[in-house]
Input
Amino acid sequence: MKSYQFGVDYYPEHWPKERWVTDAKMMRDMGIQIVRMAEFSWQKFEPREGEFHFEDLDEAIGILAKEGIDVILGTPTAAPPKWIIDLNPEIQPTDWHGHQRFFGSRHHDCQSNPAYRAHIRRFVTAFADHYAKNPAVVGWQVDNELGNSHGDLCYCDHCRDRFQGWLKDKYGAIDELNRAWGTAFWSQGYDDFSSIPAPKITAAWGVNPSHELDWKRFTSDLVCEFHQEQADILRAAAPEKWITHNLMGFSSKPSYYDLGEQLDFASHDQYPGGHFHARHDEYRADFHAAELDFIRAIKQKPFWVMEQQSGITGWDVLGRAPKPGQIPLWAMQSVAHGADTIVFFRWRSCAMGTEQYWHGILPHNGIPGRYHAEISAMMKQYTPLLKEIAGGVPNAEVAILRSYDQERAIGIQPHHPNHRYIQHLMTYYKALHRANIPVDFVGEMHDWSKYKVLIAPLQFLMTEEHLDKLRTYVERGGRLVVTWRSGIKDESNLCHTDGPVPVRFNALTGVTVDEYDCLRDCQGTVRWDGMDYKCSQWCDVLSASTAEPVAEYAHEFYAGTPAITRNQYGRGLTWYVGTTMGDGLADKFIAEICREAAIAPLMATPHGVEAVHRVKDDRTYLFLLNHNESVQTVDVSAEFTPWDGEPWTGEIGPLGVRVFVKG
Ligand code: GLA
Ligand code: ZN
Output
């Protein structure tokens, strides 16, 4: 596969043709090697059913190719044109109130609708056939950010029918489903699969948690199958072109592990300054780092950023302006965490439509300004580095288990109103990040054996198969961290009843949970080595059998009982954390488990300075990323030399990046 370092998302259809040559030349002059196009332009390509017009896109591709720029084409199925909606208005999705959502923005489609699928097959077949032999088109993206803008996925009768079929395949007999869902509760028994509803809003708001969990699994499978149908057409027409998808970090509608199986490599959309972030005054570099590390987990190899922020963002309201240096810093953060290719969104700020304020490299007037200058300089400086490190990944000894199924189940019943699965994972990730300890994310299906430590929070649903895998990991010498709400439910979201919590898990953890407390509107205290630390949300009240208490609660009627324990098991050990740790406690805990496992941080840095590494062959590349707006002093080990040959003064500038090499 040909390698690329920098690209841009481009929408020539938004601009007069006379400008296209200028754009292509400007891109080439900057060092752009690849462009993604077309993912929202169905109406231009097929203005009437079966009447295809690819002439303009051919021309744009030709102009780019002349400048040596290759192309990724998106299938435009995230925006079906109005004539399709007029022919088949039932394509528009139905929300959980049973109300339809209408045409006028994007993703106004039900992904199971047979008429919509027929339109897609016709269009994508023609599109794939037309571009199969075009050498400038090197890859495809199916649709766009699948799972996004689907307010919640569709609850129409087609989706309901598909859900019923999915359940029938899974359970075989209706009695088996009634048992698995516990439909004896509130008189919910079903006589036949054909009577099971999509989980629309009910009189008491939500539905049976087992019903809802299967619905979430089904919708994930539906999105993957929606992708598969197009991917099959594209692959059949052009087997040598690759397929990727612009994923959205921790977003959870489809399982990215499942979707990833269909991709040649993963891509991601990275907007650290996106207007949609809840707060704009807090430190978030760790969250963005985590999303990048997670995307690397999907194919367990480097990835692309298909949309990297290139300016101030906004739809109706805006985010903060990226400060001088921040756009290159964010792009290099993506590189540091494993991106081989950075594609900036977008080339030029659009004068029309919803995204007028989602600024591109160029402002509305097309005259290069600060964003262009900063991005050009960064590309010039770092293109050789990106070539050198392509394929390299961090060497992590710690993994965090990110499970879609646990996230779905605990999301249906979060226990504490402020509890969120990803935020909980972040308590561990952030502490590792503060300590500059490289982390991989893994799924249930991955091989964990290379990791000294596996942090597996909230093992809420516990099947025999999963338990076996955890047990084997520890028996063979792994160190496992599990937390409150582990070993609670079976695969179908019914509570285990055959033993004390963590059910079937007691031998591995060496504890039983006698009772628990939900810390509503209050915090708790954990005492460890005579120091008090904050905890929140939840406290398991534990009895240790074989486990050794490590830290204890210092609040409530359970003061003095263990909050954190450690249990030798086989050749390894299991840590149990009974609460949600505050930052201070998480730092102490990470320091302790890493000390025990002989895992050394890459180096120490001041707050807000990330140290990240990628290893390629026998060379280690160390990235220092200063997210602070002030100069920071950092002690870099003498075995590292500056990659750019510029002397290292021991200081990194505000929002600065430095790269070092060893080996
Ligand atoms: C997403 C989409 C793009 C665009 C940008 C900016 O990441 O993939 O099409 O909408 O956001 O809003
Ligand atoms: Zn539907």
About this structure: The first helix runs from residue 20 to 30. The chain has a mean pLDDT of 97. The pocket of alpha-D-galactopyranose (ligand 1) is lined by residues 144-145, 246, 269, 307, 345, 355, 358 (CB under 6 Å). The CA atoms of residues 444 and 469 lie 9 Å apart.
